[in-house]
Structure formats: C-alpha cells, structure tokens
Amino acid sequence: FMENVVNYAGATIREHGAFYGASGGKGVSYISARDIGDVAAQVLVEGERHAGQRYTLTGPEAITDDAIASKLSTLLSKPVRYVDLEPEQFIAGAKDKGTPSWMAEAVGGLERVKRAGFAADVSPATEQLLGRAGEGIDSFLAREAPRLARG
To answer: What angle (nearest 5°) sits at the alpha carbon of residue 108, between those of residues 126 and 76?
Structure first.
C-alpha cells in the first residue's frame, strides 16, 4: 500500500531523512487505500456482476523505493534516501525498534516478495473497475507530504 510510506516509514523520513526496506531495487505497483475502498464500493453496488470474480488490484505503475525517495526529496525540499538492507537485517532492525516480532516477520516477508520482483506487475483491474486510472504515486505523495514534513 502507498500508505505504508507514511504509516510505517513516516517517522524515519521526518527524523532522519531516510526510510528502510529490503526491496533490492525492484519496482512495486503500490496501490492507495482510497482506490481499494473505491473498488470495494463499486463491487458492492454492482453486486451480482462480480459474484465469483477475483481481481488483482495494483497501482498504475511499478516504482522503486529509490525513486520514491527522490520524489520525496523534491516534495519535502530536503534529502530523503532509501536504505536497502538484506531482509534479515530489515527484520532485526524492525524488532530492535520495538515492532512486534510477528509484524516484523510479516513486513519482512513482504519485502522478500518485492525483492523477488513479484510485486512489480501492473494489473488493469483497478482502472477497469473504477473507469479511471488508479491514483499514481506522485498524487499520493503530494497529498501526504504535509504529514511527512511535520517534525
């Protein structure tokens, strides 16, 4: 989710101008929670049309964490860097910072999925279901920049 940039990494972006992960430079087709909510509402309204259907929801493009850091640097008018760790380092660091073990392991698992390149595919389903393109990372970051700038 795009929101992980703010909710999970926001504190280190604000305090250290950095965020951490283990994506290995692979792109991720992040999706905004707003788009997921809009799709859910559409499916509920249209009911039967979606019975038995499965949809893979993604954002409109795959982007690397380094590219997100670059975009944040511009938006926040300060250097922001992405620090790529090995998955085990990322998990250990999360635990050291007080993340519950189960959550650190789960987020580490997601980083492994990203690192393997499995999160880079872009599906047309979000756009098809909404009748519009999903929210792009630029729009999301611009909307959330005030939360990331507070310190």
So the answer is: 65
Q: Is residue 74 within 8 Å of 57, Cβ to Cβ?
A: no
pLDDT per position as a tens digit, 53-66: 999 999 999 999 99
Cα–Cα distances (Å) from 128 to 18, 38, 120, in that order, read 35, 12, 19
Question: How many CB atoms are located within 10 Å of the residue 139 CB?
Answer: 15
* Chain center to CA of 15: 20
Helices (H) and strands (E) in the chain, counts: 8, 2
What's the pTM? 0.91
DSSP output for 112-136 = HHHHTTTT----SHHHHHHTSPPPP
Query: Quick one: tokens of 38?
Result: 């809009």
d(CA 2, CA 4): 5
- What tokens appear for 147 in the block? 């939360």
Looking only at Cα atoms, what is the longest distance across the chain? 49
